[in-house]
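ok so I'm stuck.
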Amino acid sequence: MGKKILFVASECSPFVKTGGLADVVGSLPQELNKNEKTDVRVILPLYQEIIANWHSQMELVTSIQVQVGWRNQEATIYQLVHQGIHYYFVGSDYYFERKGIYGYYDDGERFVFFCRAVIEALPVLDFQPDVLHAHDWQAGLAVAFAKISDPVKDMKTVFTIHNIKYQGIIPKDAYQELFNIPEEHIGGLEWNGLLNCMKSGIFHADKITTVSPSYAEEIQTPYYGEGLHPIFAERRNDLIGIINGVDLDEYNPMTDPHITSNYKYSRIKKKENKENLQEKLGLPIDSEKPMYVMITRLVEQKGLHLVQTILDEFLQEDVQFVLLGTGDDEFENFYFHAQQRNNQKLVSYLGFDEALARQIYAASDFFVMPSLFEPCGLSQLIALQYKSVPIVRETGGLKDTVIPFDETEETGNGFSFSNYNAHELLHILKYSLAIYHDPTRWSALLKNVNKSNFSWKDSASEYANLYQSLDGSFNKAY
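replied:
not stuck anymore, here's the structure
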């Protein structure tokens, strides 16, 4: 019987998703459970969206009472097996029967309840984990509660930081109102006079991981650490960066039902997808014209201020540019008007459409991702799967997955620039255009793109070995 791991998370594909966290929690257990050394299960909140789509397939496990301050709240535990993975769900009419996932005034209280419910449920489940693996701030308190109450003998804990910017801040007086743990433990939760759910996970976990080696280094600095960098000075020996993978079955241009011409390496088929997208979006149809794309949330993190600064100048080149995304009004307004100024070269699709996203990946020659910071990034990995050349800033997981093209050695699978500077971005865009128009160098680059592979297998191996090492019985798990 393998080592038993319980993932604690606030979202997971295919049940509910707002970002990359759901992809990791959805895909990593699938890969880990291919090996007999691990038995991974997942526990999630039972949101309204999950009830609507999955409740008929669930089985009731039990109901428990969870103390949240002076109130006893009922938590109803359900289970479901999907694609071989065992999932548990924590139901609460009061906390989770709402539209959407986050953004409520009482989010702090909601995830205090969820984390306490997870720990309270452990003794009554048919699964006693060897390792509790919590993900991001919404699950950080589960690590703290596990350490304080010790619900399962000898259970170890792992805490994964997906994005340190979002920390789950709660007023300090909520400690007495919500937490129901002795005052002596407040030091493990408090940070700068507030209660910090991210900090509580970092402080209490046996091991801390984040989603790329470079991001693990970056968050130890004041610039990237979002105020938490001092705690990593104490925990640096317990911090490890493990790069995320990508689901190669889900993102596969050979089988993708959303694209018009399926392909593996065929440039002809890729050009067919470009022509189909050009027709669909009202761009001039020309399969030889280089197409640059962005598929992104329209927020500052994604480097959009850099793109704003140089977009009109770059569009003086003989190129096409397609943007798909939604987000802040500032950026939506800019790209709406930028399309009006450049309507033969630029399409700004302000919304999100999964089928269209796949068509854009399949049609594109270049994928632009000049992020201010990027813990790992999924989009550049998907782009590589669809044989689109990524252009990124050297930060976090982008630095770890996109290797700059070297003309002399004919190595590298993309283009990158180091400083958060619009003119560096413009320079690298123009350089990529020169490579595109040089058949020999372009072919060499595409060969490297074709060899890029970021499956979950290697990442799962690192996690499996980490779990094995927690009790001192380290051995190669894969």
